[in-house]
Amino acid sequence: MTPQKLVLHWLKGRLSAADLAWLEEKSTLLATGAADKDVYTAYSSALRHSGKAPLELAPADLDSAQAASPGWDPSDWTCEQAARVALLLALPPGSKSSQLMDRVYQTADVGEAVALQKAIAVLGHPEGHMARARDGIRSNIQSVFEAVTVRNPYPAMHFDALGWNQMVTKTFFVGVPLHLVVGLDRRVNPDLARILNDLAHERWAADRPFSPELWRCVGPHADARALEDLKKVLNTGTPLEQRAAALALHASPRTEAARIIYTHPELAEAAQTGALTWERLYDGE
Amino acid sequence: MANNPKRYIDPHIHMVSRTTDDYTAMAAAGIVAVIEPAFWVGQPRTELGTFKDYFSSIVGFERFRASQFGIKHYCTIGLNSKEANNEALAEEVMDLIPRFAGKEGVVAIGEIGFDEMTAAEEKYFRIQLDMAKELDLPVMIHTPHRNKKVGTSRSMDICIEHGLSPARVVIDHNNEETAKEVLDRGFWTAFTIYPKTKMGNKRMVDIARRYGSERIIADSSADWGISDALAVPKTANLMLEEGIPEATVNAICYGNAILAYGQSGQFNEKDWLDMVRPDLTQEFAGNSLLRGGGPENPDLSRLIV
After folding, report:
1. Which residues of chain B have pLDDT under 50?
2. Domain locations along chain B
3. Residue B216: what are its φ and ψ, rounded to 5°?
4. Which terminus of chain B is less hemmed in, N or C, by CB atoms within 10 Å?
5. Backbone phi and psi for residue B142, each to the nearest 5 degrees, phi listed first
6. Could you give the CA distance from residue B266 to residue A44 in angstroms, rounded to a whole number?
7. CA–CA separation, B245 and B208 (whole Å)
8. pLDDT tens per residue, range A64-111
9. What pLDDT was estimated at residue B292?
């Protein structure tokens, strides 16, 4: 099934027949060439027909989502977001539609902006959404930033290193759990490792805490300074920080890292066997 | 309507002009929801784009800013009377209003009405009344500072002429001289509590004593001028101290705003009762608004920043 058919199918059980008919009618209108004004009004009014209830998709639905579009994870979507995305998916993919979406975004309220950013996970013509996605990363509105960053495959697939590194680094400033960022391990790079290692030093100097998930992006590209830092964290950190340091050291290809981690055989083994993972870092906290 | 612990609504306040200290104090004083009417920002706008970005900010960033303090933020959309006098620009703004008026949390068309009572002001006032009818939204009316009595009567006449029900129109910035007529004609009657101009809250106590609470609303209209973001809770406390019954105070400072603006379908008590209230004392590292450890404290005796 196409993403659009899938979204409408999910809404079928959740919206009244009249509201669904409204959405289908507007989708057809948008697909066949609507005036800008009609797009603005349909997109704004969608909420009045959808409500804000969570979609609460079943595991089978989430599998269908992955099959329809790689990396698509609508597990936290609401009916509002699904309805708005159904309208955006109705627009014929191409630069004309993505420019129209830019205009919708310019005057979006918070909920509208969030749905627009979540939509880029499945919208065609990905290059047309780049400027808007990068704008979402600049937003200080937490929910807009999270719509791009969390459970969204777009950044890992399309951002250049500058945008990607900026996004990942900002998660530590606004408190977004890093394990919800899609494609993290695929996009680690030496620059990011250095930026985050610098950030760790800044926070230590300021005596301010930071999420130990930071070490996840440092480990695979750890240089001598980073290995020293990870050794310190492994020996003197809280149990949570120690687990993160072990995972980071385990991801380093350097023999020095292996030597450090084996000073803590239990943690080394947990990282080795997969008993300890970044996803399970906070277990027991 | 039961209201315990004490909750207040400020149904007219321009938060874009206020600081995080205000938000902190408002939340602490029990303000759970605010309505931010689109207004004149002090410096006259000369471009359509600045209107567009202003409207976007009151449905966007300001909504987020308020939420960080546990305050639910709503707004009204409209072209204010002062700027209606720039006719070329006003004409363009009319096309912009429908693009915002249907958004979530837009509870009325406003604040619109008269400033000097020019022909241009009247023209765009009328166009926007028709828009409110078409969009099925309530209206918030700003009454003029000068020639107030005539301006207020005339505003109501025009609303009736355009077929609006008084029950869906809030007339704001009333005083002792205008209150009776507005109440008698069935309109919502709002009073702005301002330190120097408009109404002081001692006078508001007399209004409550004289007229009771039916269709009466208190607000702060706090903005970029000398004004008080805590005017509503302060007025509530003063009224209680002066022996105004609790139910009356509750209606004037909370319940009536829900009845008036709830007619938009966009202003529901459940929205703020269900809202997750942030713990303002929690540590926030980094560049969010609650930088480095909660809201600023203006108390100079606390030296550690």
Report:
1. 1, 281-294
2. 8-273
3. -105, 135
4. C
5. -90, 125
6. 13
7. 10
8. 999 999 999 999 999 999 999 999 999 999 999 999 999 999 999 999
9. 37
Query: Which residue do the tokens 């749905």 mark?
Result: A115
Concatenating the DSSP letter of every residue in B57-95 gives: HHHTHHHHHHHTTT-EEEEEE---TGGGGSHHHHHHHHH
Does A109 contact B104 at a Cβ distance shorter than 8 Å?
yes
| CA A34 – CA B263 distance, rounded (Å) | 31
Torsion of CA A137, A139, A145, A148, to 10 degrees: -50
What does the block give as tokens for B95? 């096309």
Chain A residue with Cα closest to B290: A174
A84 contacts in chain B (CB < 8 Å):
none
Contact yes or no for B264/B105 (Cβ under 8 A): no
Q: How far is A174 from chain B (nearest CA, A)?
A: 6
Write out the two tokens for A15: 């919206």
- CA A58 to each of CA A2, A86, A168, B75: distance values in angstroms, whole numbers, following the listed order: 18, 19, 29, 37
pTM: 0.91
**For residue B287, what is the nearest residue in chain A, using CA coordinates?**
A173
Secondary structure element (H or E) that encloses residue A238, with its range: none
Which region holds residue A81: left if phi is over 0, alpha if psi is between -120 and 50, else beta?
Answer: alpha
User: What single DSSP character describes residue B193?
Assistant: B
* CA–CA dist B271, B274 (Å, integer): 6
Q: Is the CB of A208 less than 8 angstroms away from the CB of B289?
A: no
Which tens digits make up the pLDDT trace of B260-302?
999 999 999 999 999 877 665 444 334 444 433 345 555 677 7
| CATH placement of domain B8-273 | 3.20.20.140
